[in-house]
UniProtKB/TrEMBL annotation:
This is Magnesium transporter MgtE. It is found in: Cell membrane; Membrane. SMART domains: CBS, MgtE_N. Gene3D superfamilies: CBS-domain, MgtE N-terminal domain-like, SLC41 divalent cation transporters, integral membrane domain. SUPFAM superfamilies: CBS-domain pair, MgtE membrane domain-like, MgtE N-terminal domain-like. Acts as a magnesium transporter. The gene is mgtE. It comes from Candidatus Uhrbacteria bacterium CG10_big_fil_rev_8_21_14_0_10_48_11. Belongs to the SLC41A transporter family. GO terms for molecular function: magnesium ion transmembrane transporter activity; metal ion binding. The keyword Magnesium applies. The chain crosses the membrane at residues 286-307, 313-339, 360-382, 388-413, 425-452. NCBIfam families: mgtE.
Amino acid sequence: MQKSLNRVQEAFLRLVHNRAYSHAYNALKQMHPADLAQLLPYLQEREQQWFVETLLKTRKLGGVISELDENKVLEFLELVPQEEFVKVLEEINADDAADLIAGLPEGQRQEIFERLSGSQKKAVGKLLGYAPDTAGGIMSPEFVSMEQTLTVGEAIDQLRAKASGEKEEIYNIYICDADDQLVGVVSFRDLVLSPPDKTLQDIMERNPVAVRPHANQELVADMIARYNLLSVPVIDENHRLIGRITVDDAIDVLKEEATEDIYHLGNLAQEDHISTPVWTSAKPRALWLLINLGTAVLAAATISLFSETISRFVILAALMPIVSGMGGNAGTQSLTVVVRGLALGEVDWSLALKVIWKELAVGLFNGVIIGAVIGVLTYLWYHNLTLAMVMVLAMVGNLIIAALAGAFIPLLLRKLRQDPALASSIFVTTATDVGGFLLFLGLSTIFIKLIIS
């Protein structure tokens, strides 16, 4: 069993594998959809069919589908009859239904959408009109709004009546005027704790934080995190309330963006997963590996410039990978810090000089420490003081190059409106390889007579 599974999940799988289906059925009824969604890869084909049928009987299918990772949804839906899938889409939140439909193949997408009915079809249709990475693409059109003239007692009575039909949690009550324009917000806590004769106008927070439907989803998630919000309203160009984005949506976005940045740092496609077909994984990886090959050839060409020096003192060939390798590691450290700062909005181009100077200082400090250590080791190894000093100077220089490249390259890519995580690692590695070889072999060439004497 993988460590990611808890004891309840492991016990459930043992029951299924042992065909103790009646006990497994009882266990499944008590489990959370998020836990059930993790189990699909561990089930055999016949077990998967039983799993789906049981989810249908216990009315948990919609919750499980909503919790599945995007790369698992299509695989799972192959087990679900289409009419049952349509029923699920009718029952779940409109934003979750829109996400599921958007992930279907184009032909199937239209067919499934047309089979929806009533208000759900209308709500899903509106959401599908927004780009998936925008506030409109992740918002829920389900919210509770009231007029500001209502008293707290009247609002609670209305809320009690409305809550029975809500599919999502109620965190805030949005206060709108006669034209449905957002004028304030009242938290559920403030509503419950306020005297019943006070009006909503008296207790509401005026001019609440709100976003437009075309705002980038990452900016919205950052806003929710920055202001510690449970939900944020979405308003149109006329300031009318059209939806809300909840904190669980923001968590999903931050998880998605973090995954995307990690994949970009490794030059991988976001669709690349453990279960992805070989060709789908290999094709984008091969492209970046070919680009990497080009930079490796550049590093090799740099070494070839000093072939005569290396032939005169072959030990240089054993030492030069140490300089380039340490530079690559140091560059990755700087790159990680800066890319993270850019992703969280802590760094922008206006702070570029400050960031670069800081990383240069770190590079110089580490260069002196690492250079001194490798210098002493080189001297103890080869009893050659000049060679040891060349190692020290090359190491200090390359760690400074690494710090400069790791800080400047992602900042430059962001300035050029490119994803700083996408290609930074290749450029940084190239800079440290070429820079390290140039410094070490160049200094060795200058002092070759002293080295071999």
